[in-house]
Amino acid sequence: MTRKISRTLVATVAACLLAFSSLGHARAVDESPSALAMTTDAVLLRPALLATTIVGSAVYLVSLPFSALGGNAGEAGEVLVVGPAKATFVRCLGCSRTGRKPQTVEQSNN
User: Fold this and answer.
1) What whole-number distance in Å separates Cα of residue 36 and Cα of residue 68?
2) Rounded distance, CA 98 to CA 31, Å?
3) pLDDT digits (tens, 9 = 90+) for 59-92
4) Which pLDDT value is given to residue 106?
5) Are the beta carbons of 100 and 90 closer than 8 angstroms?
6) Torsion angle of alpha carbons 42, 44, 46, 49, nearest 10°?
7) pLDDT of residue 91
8) Which helix (DSSP H) or strand (DSSP E) does residue 92 occupy?
9) Are the C-beta atoms of residues 68 and 60 closer than 8 Å to each other?
């Protein structure tokens, strides 16, 4: 039973992460983070944000029938899954805002 739930959760997280194209829609971020900011981000913040994404996905899955009946399933998915996923995966290391460095955005548009 636990194995089936974990497979479903992993599949849901993977589907949610693939649901948005991070390369084409990323904002350019012009920040120059320090080594301390990058280290703190890599060691503390990214793992916490990844955990938040996973927990948010589980909460979204459990609350999906209720949010669908309430008409805000998309909003719930954005807040619980997509927002934390973007903060985890579509943010330069040490930056405070979600987005990519300008040269990365230019390369992905070519």
Assistant:
1) 43
2) 11
3) 999 999 999 999 999 999 999 999 999 999 888 8
4) 57
5) yes
6) -170
7) 85
8) none
9) no
